[in-house]
Specification:
Elements: H1 7-55, H2 60-68, H3 74-82, H4 95-145, H5 160-216, H6 221-253, E1 260-264, H7 265-273, H8 277-282, E2 286-290, E3 296-300, H9 301-317, E4 324-332, E5 335-342, H10 374-384, E6 388-394, E7 398-406, H11 409-412
Parallel strand pairs: 2-4
Antiparallel strand pairs: 1-3, 4-5, 5-7, 6-7
Enzyme class: transferase
Catalytic activity: ATP + protein L-histidine = ADP + protein N-phospho-L-histidine
GO molecular function, one term: kinase activity
């Protein structure tokens, strides 16, 4: 009887059981009442018969013996037929039976009417509440199909019906998540298209101008060489921009699966600073690595080295000739921290809360060739692996970026 787990069905079933019990009690009462009434009528009839016989001179002993007798003979049956008192006698012609039937019928009809009214009234309330529940479900499901998820189906009771509601709610949650993902995907696509269009406009315009100059002065080798180099720089900027945008798109779409493996921190940082060694030497800057040589970190080697590389590039961009960039790492009880510090121009307090926004360029920034995606990309890579990144900076003194990876002490033991 699994349907009894539902509260409404359980109450209705108990209501019907109560009605059945009341009907049984009233049946017993009616039987007892009918028996008493029949007994009273028979006693009244016997008293009338005895009174008539006594008036006619029949002795009391004969009358008493006749009343106590239970035997029926042919003479008695014949006499009853002669006076019209037989089973074939119509009910209206039998006063005793008529009176008993009328009294019992009225009492039974009243009781059955009351019980029937109670059953109909209780059933009407139950069906009305069920209908209201179904209307609510239909309305809510229609809202789900229209993408509206403000209302929810009732799930605070037991029973098969509410199990079905729970299943519908799970489908609605999945549908809501799908709609939100589709909406985010559309917004992301629009944002990416807008960003790419905006960021490519300047280098493409420069390329067009450089090409026109080269075509107009083909006999000027110095001019051709100069603007060819500028064209190459613009192409490199476009390549860098598109590469960074594609990486950001893959990270935002969740299509990147970080392959975490235990690696030496020295190997990780060596990979990160290798592309910038020549640039640092040419610009008269120094990159120093400092930390335990046997320290191990579990992370994605390629992506994490790129994130640190972006921090190194940012430090080189904002550090003048003779500048020093220090990369340090240190193990703490529950984490490993890697910091990238420089003694460059620093970040103003107006900009420090915005530096991880995409394409953000400070009004105080000098004219560097960056596209404003290095720091957001580093943040996305670190946070995608469960880490955090923070920055502390003092204008005209330097900046320190700190990456924290929450790890186990067993990692440091190899």
């Amino acid at each position: 009887m699994s349907f009894l787990r539902e509260k409404r069905a359980r109450f209705y079933f108990l209501f019907l059981c109560g009605i059945a019990l009341v009907l049984l009690l009233f049946s017993i009462l009616m039987t007892w009442q009918h028996t008493r009434q029949t007994q009273e009528l028979l006693l009244e009839k016997e008293a009338s018969l005895a009174s008539s016989l006594l008036e006619q001179g029949v002795s009391a002993e004969v009358i008493a013996a006749a009343m106590k007798s239970e035997s029926v003979n042919t003479n008695g049956l014949t006499f009853m037929e002669q006076i019209g008192h037989t089973n074939a006698t119509p009910l209206p012609l039998s006063p005793l039976a008529r009176q008993t039937a009328i009294s019992f019928g009225i009492f039974a009809c009243v009781i059955l009417f009351l019980l029937g009214f109670a059953v109909l009234f209780g059933s009407a309330i139950y069906l009305h509440r069920q209908d209201a529940l179904y209307q609510t479900v239909i309305r809510t499901v229609n809202e789900y199909s229209d993408g509206i998820f403000q209302n929810h189906l009732p799930q605070n009771e037991n029973g098969l019906l509410y199990q079905m509601f729970s299943g519908i709610e799970e489908l609605a949650v999945a549908l809501q998540a799908k709609n939100e993902n589709e909406h985010k995907s559309k917004e992301f696509l629009q944002e990416m298209v807008s960003n790419i269009s905006h960021q490519l406009k300047t280098p493409l315009a420069a390329l067009s101008m450089y090409t026109e100059i080269i075509m107009d002065e083909p006999d000027q080798p110095d001019t051709v060489t100069s603007f060819a180099e500028k064209s190459m720089a613009s192409l490199q900027r476009i390549e860098q921009l598109i590469g960074a945008l594609l990486k950001m798109a893959r990270l935002d779409a969740g299509s990147i699966v970080f392959e975490k493996k235990p690696i030496l921190v020295t190997e990780l940082l060596g990979q990160a600073q290798a592309p910038f060694a020549t640039r640092a030497e040419v610009e008269g800057k120094q990159i120093m690595l400092s930390g335990p040589p046997d320290e191990i970190l579990t992370c994605d080697f390629e992506w994490t080295s790129e994130a640190i590389g972006n921090l190194l590039k940012n430090a080189l961009d904002h550090t003048g000739r003779g500048g020093l960039i220090c990369v340090e790492w240190k193990r703490f009880p529950d984490m490993l921290r890697i910091s990238v510090s420089d003694n460059g121009c620093g970040i103003s307090q107006d900009d420090i809360h915005h530096i991880f926004k995409r394409f953000y360029r400070s009004k105080h920034s000098s004219d560097h060739a960056g596209v404003g995606l290095g720091l957001p990309l580093a943040k996305a890579i670190v946070e995608g692996q469960g880490g955090t990144i923070s920055v502390v900076s003092t204008p005209c003194e330097g900046t320190t970026f700190t990456i924290s990876f929450f790890t186990n002490l067993t990692e440091s033991q190899g």
